[in-house]
Amino acid sequence: MIALMLAAGLARRLYGDENENPPKALLSFGGESLLQRHIEILRACDVEELFLVVGHRSDDLLGEAQRIAPGGFVKSVFNPRYHEGPILSLACGGPALRSGSPVVFMDADVLYHPDILHRLVRSSHATCFVFDREFQSTDDFVKVCLRDGQVVDFGKTLTREHDMVCEWPGFVKMAPDIAAKVADHADRIVASGEIEGAYERAICAVLHSEPPGTFGYEDITGIPWVEIDYESDLKKAATQVIPRIAEFG
């Protein structure tokens, strides 16, 4: 199993346009960067490789990766269009998505207890979302929707009928064939020129095209996590989530 992480962006919602702040993956909590936490958790889950899509201040990210990870664990690709839509970074992850291995897709800007990734990696579902029934974010969050106990919709904009809405922490495991289909959809979106908008639409397109039950789920409600998009998230991470992670054990 390998991991794919998108870490190319400018963090505009946190820092503003055209900023020179370090990437969010270098934010430090409890003396460790998010990237260090990701790598340590991935290795503890026996993930063999992290494929890192970089752009903004890429040398800083790769320097941190080199400091933390053993040689060969982190492979990277540079997205020269990182100022544009995040679907371009997902398309840059094509080699990982088409590797023939199961893929754990990860957002880089999430602080979380290791149990979330452990549950995802060890899930009996070959393709699997994690979700939280209690919304942790107050604005602009990604949803996983169920109907009759099956995942039927995913993203910020919903189009399918559902009877439960949960929040997505930014991680999904994909079987090799599903991962390759996500790469194909990302490429088609980029080729169409419709690069504005969320990358999740490529994953959602595959969800909608596959038979019901293809995408399973693991409920991680109660396990501490936060996605860091805004200044309020940064404050919450430092004052609430880090203490909860320590207490959770």
Describe the structure.
The protein is α/β, with parallel strands linked by helices and 249 residues long. It has one domain: Spore Coat Polysaccharide Biosynthesis Protein SpsA, Chain A. The chain is built from nine helices and 14 strands. The strands form four sheets. It has a seven-stranded mixed beta sheet with strand order 5-4-1-6-12-8-13. Strands 10-9-11 form a three-stranded antiparallel beta sheet. It has a two-stranded antiparallel sheet with strand order 2-3. Helix 7 (176-192) packs across helix 8. It is globular, with a radius of gyration of 17 Å. The model has no long low-confidence stretch (mean pLDDT 95).
Helix percent reads 25-40%
Strand/helix succession? EHEEHEHEHHEEHEEEEEHHEEH
The helix count comes to 9
SS content category? alpha/beta
So, CATH architecture? Alpha-Beta Complex
Main beta-sheet strand count, sense and barrel state: 7 strands, mixed
**Radius of gyration, Cα only, in angstroms?**
17 Å
β-strand number: 14
Fourth CATH level, the homologous superfamily = Spore Coat Polysaccharide Biosynthesis Protein SpsA, Chain A
What would the average pLDDT be, to the nearest integer?
Answer: 95
Strand content: 15-25%
- What is the CA–CA distance across the termini? 26 Å
Low-confidence stretches: none
Strands in their spatial order, largest beta sheet: 5-4-1-6-12-8-13
Which topology does CATH recognise?
A: Spore Coat Polysaccharide Biosynthesis Protein SpsA, Chain A
